[in-house]
Design goal:
The protein is built from 22 helices and 17 strands. The chain has helices spanning 19-30, 43-57, 70-83, 100-107, 117-126, 150-161, 178-187, 221-243, 255-270, 275-299, 301-316, 323-326, 329-337, 346-361, 374-384, 409-421, 454-461, 481-506, 508-512, 534-560, 575-578, 587-593; strands at residues 3-6, 15-16, 33-36, 62-66, 91-94, 112-115, 134-140, 166-171, 192-195, 210-217, 366-370, 392-395, 426-429, 442-447, 470-477, 524-527, 530-532.
Length: 594
C-alpha cells in the first residue's frame, strides 16, 4: 500500500507511511522513550514527526536535538529544513566554533536547536541557555549517554530542569549487557522502550537485502616469522606475571587479560607488596609488545613501522621508561627488518580485489572501507588511488596529533557531499564514519578488521543496504586477534537483542499500558487520494503484512520440503495447518474435541 503522512508541521514532502514508525511515534508522544530500531529503518523520520507534533502542541516552546558529531548534525539540519513546515530561520545549528554570546542570541527566536551535547551542556551550565521552556529533547545515537559523556550530562540537566518535557533517545545498539541497557534506560528517564528487529513482519518489507561475508585469510609466512620473536618475548613476561599470581587468564594472551592483571598489580602496590611495581612494569611492556604483534598480524608492515617510529620519537623526547622496549634485540631487529619493506599483508590485496570487483560490476558504485587505525586508512587510500577508475579519500576525526592532522568539520561535510554526489567513489573511514551518517548509495562495505563492540559492528554494517541491496565483507586473518574479535562481536549482538526483549517483557505492563491512548490525532494518512485515520492504516497494514509473511513462509517451506502439499484451498487455515503434512493432526484439533 502506497501511503503518505500529513501533519500541520510537516512540509509538502510528506513522509512515507510505515505502520511500525507510527506505532513507535504513538509511544514517544506519550512518554519519554528509548527507541531501538536497526540501522536504516527510519529513526530520523520518527524523530522529525515527534518534533513536528510537539511544536504544534506547544508553539511557544523549543525542541533541542543533539547528536555526537558535527557531520551527523549537519545531515539532520538539512533534513529538518526539508521536512518541517516551520520558518527556516527558526531552525538553527550551533557548535563550539560560534561564540557563546552569539549562540545565546541565535537561540532566542529558535524553535529547533541542533547541537553537539558539549555545546548544550556548556551553555546550560553557564546560564546562557535554559531548558525550562523545552518540550522535547531528542538524543540521536543515544548509546553514548553513559558515564561522564556529555550526552548523558545533557540528559541529566534536561530531566532536572525541564517542566514535563519528553525525552526521546534513539539508537540501533543500546548495549550488550543487562546493566548497560538498564543504565541507559534510567539515564534517559525512559518510562517506555520501543524496539523491533529486522525479522519483525512490520519491518521486514522495508529491509534492503544485506549480504554479509566473512573472508578468512591465511597470514603470510613472512609476517608469522616477524611476529614469532615478539610472541616468545611476550610469553616470557606473562609467565613471570603468572608466577606471582597477577596474570590469571588461561589460553591466548589478551589485552583484557593484561588489563585485569593491572588491577591486581595496583592492589599489590597499595599493600606495598614487593611484586607490585615490578608486575606493573611487566604489564605495561606486555601491552606494548602485544600491540606490536597485533599490528603485524592484522594491519601489516606500514602500520607497524609507523608505530615503531612514534615509539622511538617518544623515547627520544624523554620517555625513558620506553628504554625497556626500544633497547631489546627483538624490537631493534624488527625495526631494522621492516624499515624499507613494502606492504605484504594480504588484506591489502583483498581490499583492492573487492573494490575493483564492485567498480567493474557498476562504475557508479560507492564503497566504504572501515579501518580502526588512521595509519591503515592512509595506506589503504594511497593504494586504492593508484588504481584506474578509483577516487578514494580518507574520512577521519577532527582530533590532531603531531604529524597527524585531523579533518575539520567543513572538510568532513564536504567529503560526504562529494561521496554522495559521486565525485568520490571510495570512502576510507575510521570509527567517525560509523554512526548515523546516511550514505544511501554505499553498495559495498569492507571491514579491514572485525570490531569487538556490538555497537560499532551494527553501526558499520548499517552503512550499506540502507535503500537498496548491499554487501558487507569482513576481513579476518587466521589465528590472530581478528578471529577472537569476530566471535565476540557476534555473541554480543545476539545477547543485546535477548536482553532487550527480556527487559521489555519484565516491564510489559508499564510499557504497554500507554498504547490505550492514541497520541496521533494530528496525523492523517493519504492513500490513493483518500484520507484515513492512523489507527485504520495500522490495522490494515498489520493484516496485509501478516498475509504476505504467511505466503513467504509457505514458499520457503515448499522449497525445503517439495513433497509436502501446501496449496491448501481453505484460506481460513492457520500457517501451522497449511504447513502440516496431510493426515497429521495438530493440538488445536484435540482442543476442539473438548
Amino acid at each position: 500500500m502506497s501511503a503518505r503522512i500529513t501533519h500541520p508541521n510537516l512540509s509538502s514532502q510528506d513522509i512515507e507511511a510505515r505502520a511500525y514508525q507510527l506505532m513507535a511515534l504513538n509511544n514517544i508522544l506519550h512518554s519519554s522513550t528509548l527507541l531501538v530500531l536497526p540501522t536504516a529503518m527510519g529513526k530520523t523520520p520518527i524523530e522529525l514527526m515527534a518534533i513536528a507534533d510537539k511544536m504544534h502542541q506547544f508553539p511557544n516552546k523549543k525542541v533541542i536535538f543533539i547528536a555526537p558529531t558535527n557531520p551527523l548534525l549537519a545531515q539532520h539540519y538539512k533534513e529538518a529544513k526539508n521536512f518541517l513546515n516551520i520558518p527556516h530561520d527558526s531552525i538553527i545549528m550551533i557548535n563550539g566554533g560560534i561564540n557563546w554570546q552569539k549562540r545565546q542570541e541565535m537561540a532566542i527566536n529558535a524553535k529547533l536547536i541542533l547541537a553537539t551535547p558539549q555545546v548544550i551542556r556548556n551553555d546550560v551550565n553557564r546560564g546562557s541557555l535554559s531548558l525550562t521552556d523545552c518540550c522535547l529533547l531528542v538524543i540521536d545515537e543515544a548509546h553514548h549517554a553513559s558515564g561522564k559523556h556529555a550526552m548523558g550530562q545533557v540528559a541529566d540537566l534536561y530531566l532536572k530542569h525541564s517542566k514535563e518535557g519528553l525525552l526521546l533517545g534513539a539508537t540501533a545498539s543500546p548495549g550488550s549487557t543487562d546493566r548497560a541497557i538498564i543504565n541507559l534506560i534510567n539515564r534517559l528517564g525512559s518510562s517506555n522502550v520501543f524496539s523491533m528487529q529486522k525479522n519483525n513482519p512490520l519491518i521486514k518489507p522495508y529491509v534492503s537485502q544485506l549480504k554479509s561475508n566473512t573472508i578468512t585469510l591465511d597470514l603470510p609466512k613472512k609476517l608469522e616469522e616477524l611476529a614469532a620473536p615478539l610472541k616468545i618475548w611476550l610469553d616470557e613476561m606473562v609467565e613471570k606475571l603468572r608466577r606471582v599470581g597477577v596474570y590469571l587468564h588461561k589460553g591466548v594472551i589478551t589485552t583484557s587479560g593484561l588489563n585485569d592483571s593491572m588491577k591486581r598489580a595496583s592492589f599489590l602496590i597499595e599493600r606495598k607488596n614487593q611484586h607490585g611495581w615490578n608486575s606493573m612494569k611487566l604489564i605495561v611492556d606486555s601491552i606494548r609488545v602485544l600491540q606490536l604483534i597485533n599490528l603485524i598480524t592484522t594491519q601489516g608492515i606500514i602500520s607497524t613501522r609507523n608505530y615503531i617510529r612514534r615509539t622511538m620519537t617518544q623515547f627520544e623526547n624523554g620517555e625513558k621508561k620506553l628504554s625497556r622496549i626500544v633497547t631489546k634485540k627483538e624490537f631493534i631487529n624488527l625495526k631494522e627488518e621492516i624499515s624499507n619493506m613494502q606492504e605484504i599483508h594480504n588484506k591489502m590485496d583483498k581490499v583492492v580485489e573487492l573494490v575493483k570487483e564492485q567498480i567493474d560490476l557498476d562504475n557508479q558504485s560507492r564503497i566504504i572501507v572501515f579501518a580502526s587505525l588512521r595509519d591503515s586508512v592512509k595506506n589503504i587510500t594511497i593504494t586504492l588511488n593508484g588504481i584506474n577508475g578509483i577516487n578514494a579519500v580518507p574520512f577521519i576525526g577532527q582530533s590532531s596529533r603531531k604529524g597527524d592532522e585531523g579533518m575539520s568539520q567543513k572538510q568532513q561535510i564536504s567529503t560526504l557531499e562529494d561521496f554522495k554526489e559521486g565525485k568520490l567513489n571510495v570512502l576510507v573511514a575510521t570509527s567517525v564514519g560509523e554512526e548515523g551518517l546516511d550514505i544511501p548509495s554505499a553498495d559495498r562495505v569492507i571491514f579491514y578488521e572485525p570490531v569487538a563492540s556490538e555497537i560499532r559492528t551494527i553501526q558499520r554494517r548499517g552503512r550499506t543496504g540502507r535503500h537498496r541491496s548491499g554487501y558487507v565483507f569482513v576481513l579476518v586473518s587466521k589465528d590472530t586477534k581478528d578471529e577472537g574479535i569476530r566471535f565476540a562481536a557476534n555473541a554480543k549482538e545476539n545477547r543485546m537483542y535477548r536482553i532487550l526483549n527480556k527487559i521489555k517483557n519484565q516491564r510489559r505492563l508499564s510499557f504497554n499500558s500507554i498504547n490505550s491512548k492514541n497520541q496521533l490525532d494530528n496525523f492523517k494518512i493519504i492513500s490513493e487520494n483518500n484520507e484515513i485515520s492512523v489507527d485504520s492504516f495500522i490495522i490494515s497494514e498489520k493484516k496485509r503484512l501478516k498475509k504476505e509473511n504467511e505466503k513467504e513462509k509457505i514458499k520457503v517451506e515448499e522449497i525445503k520440503n517439495p513433497e509436502i502439499k501446501l496449496n491448501v484451498p481453505n484460506n481460513n487455515l492457520s500457517i501451522s495447518q497449511k504447513l502440516r503434512p496431510k493426515g497429521q493432526s495438530g493440538l488445536e484439533e484435540f482442543e476442539n474435541e473438548n
